[in-house]
């Protein structure tokens, strides 16, 4: 028997820890002993029932996990291999990582790269992985450190914070876009931002084109912020869009794209193919392995603290990444 955080609807929506047997696990090729998971905003929505995240019931919550392979019928992994899972609908359509055991398809797993321990991978979690995908998109589109400043919105969030740290490690000069300008010291000294800009400047409707400032951008807000970043991006620059915290709308014109050749790169973290996932995790290991950022950006909680932490996250009382030690 092992503990799992199960979401049910019979008929009332409920999340509670329960004990499961190995025979309860879903179909899959790889059995994993889960060592760490994390608490993401999507997890908090699912656990509190405040967002339409869960698609099937009953469901084990948790959109990511890290652990050790117990058995693999596909032959891709050996017992003891350390692996990571992000996305693929885990914690939404399929059983996820807030349990001591998991069984998943081999194609969903990435072997943990050297330079990171299992706790580190969940300190990064889906937020760090998404940040690496966004930075990788800038690189693939030819945005180089010498080309100019990179603006990062939502800089105090998980994706934004890790994006700043990655950019600094890779030699880029970044500007943190945030409403919490009182945290300038942390954004610059710890995460590596070169400067901080008040997010209010980009939060309202702006011009179709602004003065060219940014060589690129990483945006997790959407709406007016994304539109204003695109409008101020230099000729040939790239903006990576990976979130909608401000809104799903995109009140922009085609001017930046047809007059300046700006490229808008969409970042999906759920269904990315394995080679792209592996590249992202290699970047995280090379740039942030052993970094004090991982210790300062995340705190570790026990399983019985997850449900109160989810409520606190939804109420805006929880800051930083939350790692769940599954033991």
Automatic annotation (TrEMBL):
Domain Enoyl reductase (ER) residue range list: 14-324
The protein's Enzyme Commission number: 1.-.-.-
Cross-referenced Pfam families: ADH_N, ADH_zinc_N
CDD domains according to UniProt: MDR_yhdh
Endpoints of the signal sequence: none
Broadest EC class assigned to this enzyme: oxidoreductase
Keyword tags: Oxidoreductase
Presence of the UniProt keyword Oxidoreductase in the record: yes
UniProt name for this protein: MDR family oxidoreductase
NCBIfam families (UniProt xref): oxido_YhdH
SMART domains: PKS_ER (SM00829)
GO molecular function, one term: acryloyl-CoA reductase (NADPH) activity
């Amino acid at each position: 028997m092992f503990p799992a955080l199960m979401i049910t609807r019979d008929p009332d929506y409920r999340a509670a820890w329960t004990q499961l047997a190995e025979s309860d696990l879903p179909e899959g090729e790889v059995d994993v002993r889960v060592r760490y998971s994390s608490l993401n905003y999507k997890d908090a929505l699912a656990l509190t029932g405040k967002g339409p995240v869960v698609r099937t019931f009953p469901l084990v919550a948790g959109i990511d996990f890290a652990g050790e392979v117990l058995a693999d019928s596909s032959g891709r992994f050996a017992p003891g291999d350390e692996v990571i899972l992000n996305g693929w609908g885990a914690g939404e359509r399929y059983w996820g990582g807030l349990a001591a055991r998991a069984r998943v398809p081999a194609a969903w797993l990435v072997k943990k790269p050297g330079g990171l321990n299992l706790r580190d991978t969940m300190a990064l979690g889906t937020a760090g992985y998404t940040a690496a995908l966004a930075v990788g998109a800038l690189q693939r589109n030819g945005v180089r450190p010498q080309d100019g400043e990179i603006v990062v919105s939502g800089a105090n969030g998980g994706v934004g914070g890790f994006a700043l740290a990655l950019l600094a490690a890779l030699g880029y000069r970044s500007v943190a876009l945030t409403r919490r300008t009182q945290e300038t010291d942390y954004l610059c000294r710890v995460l590596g931002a070169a400067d901080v800009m008040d997010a209010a400047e980009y939060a309202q409707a702006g011009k179709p084109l602004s003065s060219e400032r940014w060589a690129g951008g990483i945006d997790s807000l959407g709406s007016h912020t994304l539109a204003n970043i695109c409008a101020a991006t230099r000729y040939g620059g790239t903006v990576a869009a990976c979130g909608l915290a401000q809104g799903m709308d995109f009140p922009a014109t085609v001017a930046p794209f047809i007059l300046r050749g700006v490229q808008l790169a969409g970042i999906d973290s759920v269904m990315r193919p394995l080679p792209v996932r592996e590249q992202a995790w290699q970047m995280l290991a090379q740039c942030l392995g052993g970094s004090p950022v991982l210790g300062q950006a995340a705190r570790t909680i026990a399983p019985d603290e997850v449900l109160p932490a989810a409520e606190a996250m939804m109420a805006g009382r929880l800051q930083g990444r939350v790692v769940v030690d599954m033991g």
